[in-house]
Amino acid sequence: MIISKTKNMHVNRRNFLRQSFASAAGITATSMFPADLFGKDLHGTSRPDEIIIKPQDRPKPKESIRFSVIGLNHGHIYGMADALIKGGGEIVAVYSKEPELLPGFIKLYPGIKVARSAEEILGDNSIQLVASAAIPVDRAPLGIRVMQSGKDFMTDKPGIVTFAQFEEVKKVQKETKRIYSIMYSERLGNPASVQAGELIKAGAIGKVVQTIGLGPHRMTPNTRPDWFFDPEKAGGVLCDIGSHQCDQFLFYTNSQQAQVNFSQIGNFGTNKYPEYQDFGDMSVRSSHATGYIRIDWFTPNGLATWGDGRTFILGTEGYIEMRKYIDIAGKAGGNHLFLVNQKETKYFNCSEVYMPYGEQLVSDVVNRTETAMSQDHCFLATELALSGQKMAFKLI
C-alpha cells in the first residue's frame, strides 16, 4: 500500500509539472500570434480564390510558312505539327523511313504529300522549316542537313544525345544562322506552364530562387519500340526527359548560365533491359538560383493519366505549384496552377491559356528573330541535360 501511494504521488507530480509547462508555453505562444487567429483551426486554410482563365479571341497569325515533317518515331510529332499549323504554318509533305508509321499521320493531315525520300523535302526551296520526331540519335544529324539546306529545324526532345553531336550542331547553326529549335513540350506545350511564366514575369512571387521539377512517366513496355530501351539511341533518362526540367529551370529562374551539381541514374525495375535507366535525378544551379530534378518510369496503372507531373517554383515573395496533368483526389482534369504570395492564395484553371510557341516560331522563321526561344537557351538546356547524363553516378 505504501509503495502504491508513493507511486501515485510521483505520477500526480509529473502531471502537475507537465500541465504547468504546457500552460506557460501556451501563455508565451499567445503573445506571438495575431488576436484574430484564436478561435480558428491553426491547421486550416481558407478556400483559395478560383480563377478560370477564359479563351482569348485571337486574330489570325500575321505570318505564315510552309513546313514539312521528316521522322514520325515519337507521337510528339502530332503536337509539334499542330502548334505550327495553329501558328500560321502550312504542312506540305511528310517522309518516314518506316512506312507503317505513315497511315495515322496521313489520316490526321489529309492531302499532305508523301515524299519518297528526305532529300526530296530538303531539296524543295519552298519549304522553310522541317519538323522531326525521328529516333533521338538521328535528330541532330538530320537537323544539320536541314540547316545546311537553308531551312530551319524544329525537333522533339531530346534534340541532341551526345556531346559530339552537340558541338557539331552548334558549329553548323553558327555557320548557317538557321534556327535549331527543340520543343520542350512540358513547358512550351502546357497551358499551366505558360501561365506560370506570365505570373513570374508580372512579379507575382518575387525573385525566383529555386525550382523543383518532377517528371514521372508510365512505362507500358509492350508499346515501346526497341530503340526506346537503348540509351545510345534514346539518350538516357536525364538527357531525354531531364531536358524538359532543365529548360524549365533556366526559364523560370531567368538564368543565362548554369551547371550541374550532381546526378544519378538507375535501373530499379526494368530487368529485361539491363542498360535502360528507369530513374534519374540531378541538381543544377546558376549564380542566383538552384533546381532539383527527378525523373522516373514508375507511374502506377492506378493513376488516371500517364504521369503526375508537378513543378514547384519558389520565389522571395511566394510560390507556385503546377499539377500539369492530374490533381489526384482534387480538381478534375489537368492544367492546375496554385499561387500563394504575401497577398493571396489563388487557384488557376489554365486549360484555356493560349500557348504562343507555334505562332512565335513561325514569326521567328519569317523575321529571323528569337521570340519563341533564344538559341542560347535552347542549347544551354540541352547542355545541362547532357552533362547530367554524362556525369551521373550509376545507382544500380
Overview of the molecule:
The structure is a single chain. This protein is of the alpha/beta class and 396 residues long. Helices cover 36% and strands 23% of the residues. The chain has helices at residues 2-30, 76-86, 102-108, 118-122, 136-148, 163-176, 185-188, 191-201, 231-234, 237-240, 242-253, 357-367, 375-391, and strands spanning 49-52, 65-72, 89-95, 113-114, 129-133, 152-156, 180-183, 208-216, 259-266, 279-285, 290-296, 310-315, 318-323, 336-341, 345-349, 393-394. Helix 2 (76-86) packs across helix 12. The longest helix has 29 residues, at 2-30. The chain is globular and about 60 Å long.
A few lines on this structure:
The chain is of the alpha/beta class and 396 residues long. It has 13 helices and 16 strands.
Could you outline the blueprint of secondary structure elements for this entry?
Elements: H1 2-30, E1 49-52, E2 65-72, H2 76-86, E3 89-95, H3 102-108, E4 113-114, H4 118-122, E5 129-133, H5 136-148, E6 152-156, H6 163-176, E7 180-183, H7 185-188, H8 191-201, E8 208-216, H9 231-234, H10 237-240, H11 242-253, E9 259-266, E10 279-285, E11 290-296, E12 310-315, E13 318-323, E14 336-341, E15 345-349, H12 357-367, H13 375-391, E16 393-394
Parallel strand pairs: 1-15, 2-3, 2-5, 3-4, 5-6, 6-7, 8-11, 9-16
Antiparallel strand pairs: 8-12, 9-10, 10-11, 12-13, 13-14, 14-15
Helix pairs in contact: 2-12, 5-6, 11-13
